[in-house]
Amino acid sequence: MYEELTRLSPALVVLEDLDLVIGCRRHGNDLGLHGFLAALDGAMSRHQGVVTVATTNDPRVLDDAAVRAARFDRTVEVPLPDGAQRRAILRRNLGPLAAAVEIEAIADGSDGASGADLRELVRRSVLADGDEVTTATLERFAGDGAWSPATGAGLYV
Fold first, then answer.
1. For the segment 53-105, what is each residue's pLDDT rounded down to a tens digit?
2. Separation of alpha carbons 51 and 101, rounded Å
3. How far apart (Å, rounded) are the C-alpha atoms in residues 75 and 77?
4. Residue 90's domain spans which residues?
5. How many domains does the chain have?
6. Which keywords has UniProt assigned to this entry (predicted)?
7. Among positive and negative, which fits the CA dihedral 118, 119, 122, 125?
8. Is residue 35 domain-shared with residue 90, that is, in the same domain?
9. Domain assignment of residue 67, yes or no
């Protein structure tokens, strides 16, 4: 991919879930690490117009060599949404259905939920009730703990 960028730059490369591709040598998980570092170093030395952004759910498992300066110059943590942000996420995902729901109650009861968790909560509620989604439906699905970080399990497992 980086080889092709010699003809395509300027470019933005987004590497989703980098921790699944490269690991940490300390944990014996360096299968993709060496190739990744070589490709990234080559890209950084040959391309002026290439920016690489990587995401991970667990930056602790990434090898220090992969995230050092000149490879990735900044680390930006995206925290879980606070109450106001959860309300906004719920409003956006509910759309016109939000008028019939007590958004504040659902947002207050979903502390620790990510934006994806809230989207899944709305999805499940709409599948159950269609256009008749209620606060009670959202509370029921929120209360079952399927997306709760405390359960250690999610709907995508």
1. 888 888 888 878 777 777 777 888 889 999 999 999 999 999 999 999 999 99
2. 42
3. 7
4. 83-147
5. 2
6. ATP-binding, Nucleotide-binding
7. negative
8. no
9. no
